[in-house]
Amino acid sequence: MSEYPASGPPPQIPPTPARQPATTLRQRLAELRGPSVAPHPLDARALAALAANPGCKRRSLLDAAGVNKAVLATALGSPAAFGQSQFAFMRGNAFEAKVKADGGTELLRLLYERLGGGCEAPHEAQVPDLTAAGPEGRAARTALALREATAAGGWALLDHPMLALEVAGSPAYLEPDAVVVHPDGTWTVVEIKSFPMIDSSADAAKVGAAARQSAVYVLALERIAAVTKGAEVGHRVLLVCPKDFSNLPTASVVDVRKQRAVTRRQLTRLTRVEDIAATLPEGTTFDPGCSPQELGQAVDAVGAAYAPECLAACELAFHCREKSRAHGAVEALGRSVRGELGGLTTVGAVLAAAAGKEGDPADPTVAALRRAAALRAEALEGRAECH
After folding, report:
1. pLDDT, mean over the chain
2. How many CB atoms lie within 10 A of CB 88?
3. pTM, entire model
């Protein structure tokens, strides 16, 4: 017997509307980058600079989308004025090849002299093949090679492994110069630089930059070591440089525990990329084929956190500095100045408060500015009387 009444046809059930597939984050980032533009890889140097300025949503989004910021800055009319010369690049590659020659014999000798510990000297080391398709494949192959080398209990040298690290909800693929697996299961990051080490000492700024980059590699390795039995990532990295003014390699040990802790804390503060992308107007793109006006509007749609330190770390720093100066933002004077001025966010507001035209006299910042202005006026008056 039918369940419907005989007096009429069965009721019509309205069809369920088909759900539109949600745009994935990868598709969204490709649209922002430009459909025909290949993604620019995010290296450890850029990631270290990003961690040093976690409040900059502009850099977070552009790096996650794989936008080439140097090309973008040129299209905006504010090209970057820094970067490695072709000569320095070739010299660095030649020095790295010398260090890794003969299966990394010289590299392992330097590492054993500085970090040998209780292990036997590395008479020979495994050099696994890390070839795979794409960065995801290479990262998976590297993780497998690290597990196999740790289980084998011998020395192993991984030449240019690929490591994966999640940054603001988006994967970043990093490529250190080398990672050495010790017989006791310790993994050591090796950084090879072409700047000289004179009398066992190198330029402090360059060593600091290398330490910050190495800390990023250590964080990425810790994700693999957490699921690898018997593995431990060393907090001391091996920095290999030319000795004095020669081409002979020498090495120094750099402790990166402080840099690792700072980088981990800063990366956790980064706003998730999908949250930043969701606030952009429809049709926003950073395709370098667009006009400078369209690119300028797209870049300005994302908030930035400019500071003078950006000039040495970001390709868009000159563009951001110009905009910051145009708006009279006190950030252009430095982070320390910005911290001292409290709620006064523009140069105009600071000058008005110092002149007594604006601001609450009970505010300590306003009181200090007015006191400084009075002292300056008194000093200028005394100078005029002397003349």
Report:
1. 86
2. 12
3. 0.74
